[in-house]
Structures
1.
Amino acid sequence: MAEPIPPHPATPAIEATQLTCGYDGNVVLQDLTFAVKPGEIFFIIGGSGCGKSTLLRNLIGIQTPMSGTVKFFGQTFSEHDMAARRALLKTFGVLYQGGALWSSLTLRQNVALPLEEYTGLSPSEIQEIVALKLSQVGLTGFEDYYPAEISGGMKKRAGLARALALDPAIVFLDEPSAGLDPITSRRLDELVLQIREMFGTTIAVVSHELASIFSIADRVIMLERGAKGIIAEGKPRDLAANSRDPRVIEFLHRGDLPT
Amino acid sequence: MAARPETSNARVAVQTKGDAMEVSLGGTWQITEPRPSWDEIRGVENPARVRLHVDDVGKWDSSMLLFLFGAQQWCRVTGAYCDTEALPEKVQLLLNQLSTSHETSVPFDRSENFLITVGLATQDVWVKGKAISHFVGECVLSAVRLVRNPAKFRWRDCLVEMQQCGAMSLPIVSLISFLVGVTLAYTGALVLRQYGGDIYVADLIGLAMVREMGAMMTGVVLAGRTGAAFAATLGNMKANEEIDALETLGIPAVNFLVLPRLLALGVMMPLLALYANALGILGGMAVARGLLSISPTAYMVEMQTIVSMGDVMVGVIKAVTFGLIVGLAGCLRGLQAERSAAGVGQAATSAVVTAILFIIVSDAIFAVVFNIVGL
């Protein structure tokens, strides 16, 4: 029986060690150490400006950490070996906040591009995969639309289809629910669960949407601007019920501090 | 499903019993790695029944689905029975999704026939012509309103733009004007030397730079430098809904964004053109000294015999006009930009093309008009 699970579950899917990141010498996050298990839905949460997106940029290699390491299934980006870097890049997909679709390409072309770049599939096979991915995110019929011709929610779903094009082992989602109506947001959450269920994909989500956090997160780390690091780690419901840190309680209870 | 980078070893075992074919998939199936195709596996066999198994598969992804889908499609076309009962539920579900998306995903043709294309292009010319007239009219009306109420004008923005399109353009304007003077002098010297009229190279350079090339070259340089920047800035602002935010506050974009830029270019262009004239004349002087052994004094004295204040004014009038054209083209294309990265790029390109086109057209009109009025 085929089971889409990683063969070495002991190796973390993502492992950050003593990670310090920032801009122009200004430290935003200091000495972060955490690990994400394969197949886990892992949320990076915190208020605005706490460094969630900065952490994501450092994890996916867009920004170089000031110090520390990030490993994916035990492997790290190598600055000197482009082939190794490309091999590693194939294993994860990223959904950016605004979808980040290439505006000069149709949705079909957007999703097809990673397949054209990284696989030896024939054009017709690529079209089959593209149609499947777009149908999985509910965009059948919109394949030949340009990003400018679709709504914000559709752009996010198309961005997710593109992120999933290569069936990545890890998917990073940057604020997937931001700016979406509650129904679309819930459908996106269901889609995330379905992807994990079907493929055993590890999913790292940057978000501050409480509804999503409580409904789909297996585990969260909470960042705080003042602390420049992780102030809480665990299952969201456990944290909401048991944490004694007022910052965690305030965040997870929508600003209502317990009396 | 793929969980870590690993080499694919996708394999397929086939067993034929009578007219039935047992197809067993095994190994690791990764979309980024090579895999067997259904046609390769089937070979020359034409089974009436195909049974698919994936019992020996470790990790898999869309690569395996494509293989199974290929088999399923072949069965559908040839009428063979495809038995997928042995496949896990997840795989069956994904195969159904793939099958559904295959049927419902029909590409639509965006191309139009020739007549429609010509009709749309004609309509487009008309619409764009109207848009330009409307925009120019709006700028004139806004300018009149601001003359009546100058306190409302964005003087600070205007000064910043003046610095950007004026002082910051000096290096490129200097280089180009000097080299234009050098080129003109070399070309003129080729002809004039044959008739012993070397000294007239000063007249040629003086007149050409002051009446024509100073303003024209500055206009072209600013079209590429400043006009494109205006279009890109305004296009980005439109994409970020900043212009919508202005409009909803009741602040016309023309007052807030366009007029300061237009005034900046209208003021700085004649100054830059005068500066370009001087540099062009200097370039010509350098060639005259080096190639024709004409002293700078003789060069200047000869030039002043033909270049009058009227010629300088002709150049200045052209420069003001070219400046306004560059500003109008840049701002108009920026405000018309589509709300996307590609739209911003197209706006910048279109701004440069529009500005240069109108500079050449207006220069030709000026030539005719100045000839009629005797300037």
2.
Amino acid sequence: MPHFTGTDLVCFRGERTVFTGLDFALGAGDALVLRGPNGSGKSSLLRLMAGLSRPLAGAVTWDDESIADNPEAHNLRMHYIGHADPVKPVLTVTENLDFWTLLRSKANDELRQPNGVGEAIKSALARLGIGHLADVPGRFLSAGQKRRVNLARILAAPATLWLLDEPHTALDQAALRSLDDAIAEHRRGGGMVVISSHAQAAPEDADAIDLGQFQERL
Amino acid sequence: MFHRFANPTRFLRFAAVVQPWIAGLTVLLISAGLYFGLFDSPADYQQGATVRIMYVHVPSAWMALFCYTSLAIACGVALIWKHPLADLAAKATAPIGAGFTFLALVTGSLWGKPMWGAWWVWDARLTSMLVLLFLYLGYMALNNAFDDPARGAKSSSILALVGFVNVPIIKFSVNWWNTLHQPASVVKMGGPSIHASMLTPLLLMGVGFTTYYLWVMLIRIRYEVTNNKIRALQRRQAATGESQI
Amino acid sequence: MRGFIQIVRRDLHLALRQGMDSLMVVAFFVIAVVLFPFGVGPEPNTLARIAPGVIWVAALLSSMLSLERLFQTDFEDGSLELLALQPVALEITVMAKVSVHWLTTGLPLIIAAPLLAVLMNLPIEGFVPLIIALSLGTPALSLIGAIGAALILGSRRGGILLSLLVLPLYIPVLIFGVSAVDAVIGGFSAKPQLLILSGILVAALPLCPWAGAAAVRQGIE
């Protein structure tokens, strides 16, 4: 059983201590919701989990091995969605997704099949209801459509751990439903999800961390 | 609680004790150096009293390189061990080093006028000094180019190390270029064939400049520490909305 | 290696779709060189005398101008942090981006150089060493410049700052690049200069992606 944990994390950003003494633990199929007011460090915690930044103290570990020891292995098992949706305006939706999926195709049997990547992208787009946009260049997409393309990216190449920073932004009702379905299915397959959100739209049975509790006492 | 800008109290206490001694030593060494240099050393039989510029020029050039080396070491320590004082030391060193480099260039130019008949000659040493000045300026500009000082410190540390690796390559290439374009007509500045009566003031000035560097660095680090405290207070004020100053 | 090829393919694809960039670099190169006859007069011997230096300096500036975009667009739209989170070492990613920078700026400069050498009245025996020296020197410029381009990510004044950081580091390449051409025109062998240029390139190949990756890492932190 894989487990993903953080112990006694201290995060220092932009000249201040964002949170201190924070712990979390996730096992297969678990979901964790990060709540808290602006500036309480939801994004910062997700970036620590992704390995984009290092905690000032404490450790983030996967199966008791620090993620900093083998960043490439961590990158392979993890998908991250940040604030921006990296969709290149001059490439079509399929071309955009092709690139990100091909980078991860080596480790996946299904993607390694002839045309495996193409099929995976097609079905990911269909699940998010944007199959019709496959050949549209990125520059014609709305904010919500770009977000859906970004979500299709993580559906196309399977990975155990999803780190989603405000994934609900800009999505309409239909897209929110397909996102919830995708998360539920991911968890049924043993995947883990960490979501930051101030909206209520989060899995009901998820654990929650209120980052407001871990502020530095002034 | 562990805090990155925790008061380096021990350092401040140490600095407060050491600083007056270093200041006294600096004044003593530089006065002695100037006395021996200006009054108690022979004038050069070719250059006359002009040679006395050497007592400022040569130690400045030493210090320019010494400071860049210290800068690179401090940046290495800051990047590897993340020691907050190393960041402050690096930031404090750069303007001092740039000042010495500038002084070396100005005195070199002053010395060059009577010797070569021109304020500026593309002599290999002076040219290398000029490039070094650009390296210092680049470091300082990058250090100041970010809203988050920690970000500026890290970026400029990497730059200082890259620059440090490049200094010998630049020095070598400038020497190469210089010998191609100016076949050995340039008078050597300093050099090993120097009389003992000239060596005394030169060494005194060299050591005096080093203690001066330590003195100013201490002042600048103490200033940075205070500055960080003020920033911390302002941040707290922004967070709580009440003034604590 | 697969990751390297994927990133090169994608960046080349982007460069071709966005077009213009390479052409602009070459256009700047040509215009910068063409300014010199206006500055120093059209006397053929004078031009021939300064030709290697002028062509090299202009090549160096053109290569530098396009550096700012090396990581900037990917940084702004979030692609860069995503690239750092792929199962590809960041050093490889930086190397791939440097390769594309050279293919889209260095290579066109080398192709345009003989034309400018004709305009500047460069003696005919200088052509071959100019091309060889540019072929060895421009990749080194792209490699060194990548460190600067990564260091300025997110800074307040990108472009001008970049030139201050990078130009001093370009001096050795400039000196040996020009010296190689001058040597052959003066009737000597350019072998030592070209060997040193190769040495700089060989040293830069592993070191610059490594330092560049470190700079990118703290840029997206």
